[in-house]
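Listing 4. Sequential folding, example run.
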Amino acid sequence: QVQVVESGGGSVQAGGSLRLSCAASGLSFSNYNMGWFRQAPGKEREFVAAIKWSGGYIYYADSVKGRFTISRDNAKNTVYLQMNSLKPEDTAVYYCAADKAGVTAINGYDYWGQGTQVTVSS
């Protein structure tokens, strides 16, 4: 059974930093692309960042480029999202997802976590 579990969310003031972690089990992690998505209240879920199985290709939404960094540790079956210079508009539930082929498209991912709340106050 595949499990994807996010952690590391919380509340922070604008300009602060958080690091999200996502641990995946029940799959061959090193063969899977991993993505981070977010959903703010009243808005649709949107792509944030993705990293391919080898770590060689990385993608970011324009809204987070230069502030967020995605990375993975295949030995630990874990993907990370380092979020710096946080803004109130980054407030959302952040979801981690895994798929062999999906990259930036939400419907390209088969496995999803339950999400972790990130709240940025001004």
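-- end of first protein; second protein begins --
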Amino acid sequence: QVQVVESGGGLVQPGGSLRLSCVASGLIYRPSVMAWYRQVPGEEREFVASILWNTGVATYSDSVKGRFTISKDNAKNSVFLEMNNLKPDDTAVYYCKWVIPGSSEYWGRGTQVTVSS
């Protein structure tokens, strides 16, 4: 059974940085894409960034482009989100998603990021 676990969230001041990690275990098939989303209570889950397993090509939402960087370590079934110049609007629960072609999507339980002075 595939399990996805995020870590690295916390409290940071505006302008600060955090690095989120996401590890998937129990993978039988190679994923096609991994992605980060975030959600604020009462709002819909929002796409943040994604990265292709094979090519490493990354895509970002306009709200984080230039500040966040997604990366991966295929050998460790891990994906990361480096977040710089954080703003209060970045406060949310951050979720990691793994997509297995022809199978399903797997989500973690999320990690809280709070940007506040």
